[in-house]
Write a structure and sequence with these properties.
alpha+beta, Glutaredoxin, 2 domains, 10 helices, globular, binds glutathione
Length: about 250
């Protein structure tokens, strides 16, 4: 175990449900780093995170007084400061390749999975509210029902979510998964011959759709039917993500 240096402490500000936060949780676990989490209540997180970083999005990592935002920058930082169990290849060409696949995952998997899942789940508050409040502040389960309607509208408007955009996201997600599946036909990993940040990014960002067990969230046994169908539709093509979860998470 690579313990943080004396007098240093790693703190992750996050939403347990967020797959970009899962990227960082996985990176920390892969490096066997101990850390503290601050689980925030979606909707009430903004002032606290904006004060830290100037914008409202999580994950945010604090280490030794330094504030690092954005999951890929956090992985850069962790590899630089805790080089054991690297996630970025040392070879320059492989490094570049892994960063490009991670960017592809962030943009073509992460954004699309989020749009597809929230378009369905936001209409199922009884399922979503416990996922928003689990592990968070004690008052979350009292406050969430009061703010839910406004939060749901804000999320839909911020992500420009509607029937049409979620269909477009679903098509894009299908194309992205096909591209990965073709690339992985005769390979164990996306880049080179070992697990890298590219594989970690793809698997964690698919995590909600695969209901990944080690994600750290109690997924409902059954998503609403339309989302369950989407998830089942991709299951045959994403066996590699499940394998990486089983072997490296
Ligand atoms: N590019 C960012 C994306 C992070 C992101 O989209 N975070 C979402 C949760 S999945 C968030 O914090 N949304 C609330 C907000 O932006 O206020 C990363 O990789 O960290």
């Amino acid at each position: 175990m690579q313990a943080p240096e004396k007098n240093t402490m790693l703190t992750l500000y996050q939403f347990p449900i967020s797959h970009y936060c899962e990227k960082v949780r996985w990176a920390l676990a892969y490096k066997k780093l101990g850390y503290r989490t601050v689980n925030l209540l979606p909707g009430l997180h903004m002032a606290r995170i904006t004060k830290l970083t100037g914008s409202s999005s999580v994950p945010v990592l604090i280490h030794d007084g330094k504030v690092i935002k954005n999951s890929s920058d956090i992985i850069d930082y962790l590899d630089e400061h805790f080089p054991e169990s690297p996630l970025t290849p040392a070879d320059q060409a492989l490094r570049q390749e892994s960063i490009e696949w991670e960017k592809f995952a962030d943009e073509q998997i992460g954004m699309m999975v989020r749009a597809v899942c929230y378009h369905v789940l936001l209409d199922h508050p009884a399922m979503l509210m416990p996922l928003f409040t689990a592990g968070g502040p004690w008052y979350g389960r009292f406050v969430m029902p009061v703010i839910y309607s406004k939060l749901s509208n804000t999320m839909r408007s911020k992500m420009k979510l509607n029937q049409r955009t979620s269909q477009i996201a679903l098509k894009q997600l299908g194309r992205a998964i096909d591209k990965l599946d073709v690339h992985l036909q005769n390979r164990e990993f996306l880049v080179g011959d070992r697990f890298t940040r590219a594989d970690l990014a793809v698997a964690s960002l698919l995590g909600p759709l695969c209901k990944a067990e080690k994600y750290g969230v109690d997924w409902p046994q059954q998503f609403p039917e339309s989302l369950e169908k989407i998830s089942e539709g991709f299951a045959g093509k994403t066996a590699w993500a499940k394998r990486w979860y089983a072997d490296y998470r």
